[in-house]
Design goal:
alpha/beta, Redox-sensing transcriptional repressor Rex, 42% helix, single chain, Arc Repressor Mutant, subunit A, 9 helices, 7-stranded mixed beta sheet, NAD(P)-bd_dom_sf, DNA-binding transcription factor activity, Rossmann fold, 9 strands, DNA binding
Length: 250
């Protein structure tokens, strides 16, 4: 599928999306594309065929200028007076994110979090399928979770080759996460989603995304502390406006 094919018409005339077959995107743009995709799917399911940049930006929680710049990297400029074609833009973003291909996922660690992740329907609806579950605890090996039998971590290399694992998910305690990451890398997995509260050391060709819920709660705690402190200032200054402005500008 060629990215050139997806170029839409701009408001200035016949401006095709002259971008490479695979555009070199800024990291910040890559991070926002899934938000645009989520918003577009919601709009499409609601019956929308087109959407203005302002409407899509509001649905995605960004400003419209930033959205237009992001989408211009894909060769998508919309049409003046019409906006963006929802179905076409979904196709463009899914292509760039590689969601037009099946991504096999292996999950290591089937504690409470692992159980929840294994049963999350949102993965399948976005092109990801958990094909294997692993754990080092003999008491958990052989357990059936959402149709999958938990395998021992020692089976990881064989399963990774058999299933062509694209992504490894680590849901183990922090103390075990680095060893699991090493095993995933040795098995040829070069993309890792890490839920363990630790920093992983991996080769340069391996991409790691970290999800630490405790850190997110600590950041929210900071904002609560700041709002309470500002409210207590002499003169009764309200923190609501200042907090909102900073959140938008971040």
């Amino acid at each position: 599928m060629s990215q050139q094919r997806h170029g839409s018409t701009s408001g200035n005339g016949d401006r095709a999306g002259a971008v490479p077959a695979f555009p070199d995107l800024p990291e910040a743009t890559i991070a926002r594309l899934p938000e645009y995709l989520r918003a577009l799917h919601n709009l499409g399911e609601g019956g929308a065929d087109t959407i203005s940049s302002e409407g899509l930006a509001a649905a995605a929680g960004v400003n419209s200028a930033k959205l237009r710049k992001d989408l211009s990297h894909l060769g998508s400029y919309g049409t003046r007076g019409v906006g963006y074609d929802v179905a076409l833009l979904i196709e463009q973003i899914e292509y760039v994110l590689g969601l037009d291909q099946r991504r096999a996922v292996g999950l290591v660690g089937v504690g409470n979090l692992g159980h929840a992740l294994a049963g999350y329907d949102g993965f399948a609806s976005r092109g990801f399928k958990i094909v294997a579950l692993f754990d080092a605890d003999p008491a958990k090996v052989g357990e059936r979770i959402h149709g999958l039998v938990v395998r021992h971590i020692d089976e990881l290399p064989a399963v990774a080759a058999e299933e062509t694992l694209a992504i490894g998910v680590i849901a183990t305690p922090a103390g075990a996460a680095q060893a699991v990451a090493d095993e995933l890398v040795a098995a040829g997995v070069t993309s890792i989603l890490n839920f363990a509260p630790c920093v992983l050391s991996v080769p340069a060709n391996v991409d790691v995304r970290k999800v630490d819920l405790a850190i997110e709660l600590q950041i929210l705690s900071f904002h609560e502390h700041r709002k309470a402190s500002l409210t207590a200032l002499p003169g009764g200054r309200s923190a609501t406006g200042a907090g909102n402005q900073e959140a938008v500008g971040s």
